[in-house]
Amino acid sequence: MPELPEVETVKRTLTELVVGKTIKEVEVLWPKIIKKPDDAKIFQEMLQGQTIAGINRRGKFLIFQLDDYALVSHLRMEGRYGLHQKGEERTKHTHVIFHFEDGTELWYQDVRKFGTMHLFLKGEEETATPLLGLGVEPFSEQFQQNILRLAFEKTQRKVKVVLLDQKAVVGLGNIYVDEALFRSGIHPERLASSITDEEIIILHQKIRETLQEAVDMGGSSVKSYVNGQGDMGMFQQRLDVYGRKSLPCNVCGTEILKTVVGGRGTHFCPSCQK
């Protein structure tokens, strides 16, 4: 699933490609992707004539800011957007097409069809699911060490599970939680309540550092991820533990192990992360 760095990269590339374009019509070839309104035909009608004024990101969600509406899109496992010319042959995984007045088309493609789209009146998107209740942005001023301290101190959950919960900090997923914990020297199965104030200071710093490095390199293309221009990310070349089961640790040479934490495959170094 694309995480904050990947979604941020998609946001930036799409901003270059489609901001200022006006929607002539929309084709919905797989209606289940449209979650709000519950009728895909109404979704299509609402978007006719709307101009894309900007694109924002909230955690792992893209928000297309239109004249009158906010379109909240989640890519889930393998969703992707791409700009195409009218008349190009569509792939079988193309499920939503935004036709622009200039003849170009924005295709939403999704092999697994897990992606979602919610259309709100502008300004109402933060008051309802899926954005309602999301935690702070890691790059915002609101992301202070006390955010982690409050999330950790009154729970019996493991630290990785808490970090994956979007109610405390948004945008972190399997890749970047594993990487940030490794850089912090914290075992992913530690009880969150056992993390010390000194460790929280380090973890807070490493979360930001890891995410910023990944954004700077266009995200991680560990599976099918590409940005809005079809380019791969490059941060996978810097991964220390994620996807490196049985390989030697880049720091100490110990074999990287893989386990399951909170139902998610989890990579760690048993020497660097006691």
TrEMBL record:
Coiled coil: none
Gene3D superfamilies attached to this UniProt entry: 1.10.8.50, MutM-like, N-terminal
Reaction it catalyzes: Hydrolysis of DNA containing ring-opened 7-methylguanine residues, releasing 2,6-diamino-4-hydroxy-5-(N-methyl)formamidopyrimidine; 2'-deoxyribonucleotide-(2'-deoxyribose 5'-phosphate)-2'-deoxyribonucleotide-DNA = a 3'-end 2'-deoxyribonucleotide-(2,3-dehydro-2,3-deoxyribose 5'-phosphate)-DNA + a 5'-end 5'-phospho-2'-deoxyribonucleoside-DNA + H(+)
This protein's record includes keyword Nuclease: no
InterPro entries: DNA_glyclase_Znf_dom_DNA_BS, FPG_cat, FPG_Glyclase, FPG_N, H2TH_FPG, Ribosomal_uS13-like_H2TH, Znf_DNA_glyclase/AP_lyase, Znf_FPG/IleRS
Cofactor field: Zn(2+)
Domain of life: Bacteria
Quaternary structure (record): Monomer.
Record's function text: Involved in base excision repair of DNA damaged by oxidation or by mutagenic agents. Acts as DNA glycosylase that recognizes and removes damaged bases. Has a preference for oxidized purines, such as 7,8-dihydro-8-oxoguanine (8-oxoG). Has AP (apurinic/apyrimidinic) lyase activity and introduces nicks in the DNA strand. Cleaves the DNA backbone by beta-delta elimination to generate a single-strand break at the site of the removed base with both 3'- and 5'-phosphates.
PANTHER family (UniProt xref): FORMAMIDOPYRIMIDINE-DNA GLYCOSYLASE
Protein name from the UniProt record: Formamidopyrimidine-DNA glycosylase
Species name: Alkalihalobacillus alcalophilus ATCC 27647 = CGMCC 1.3604
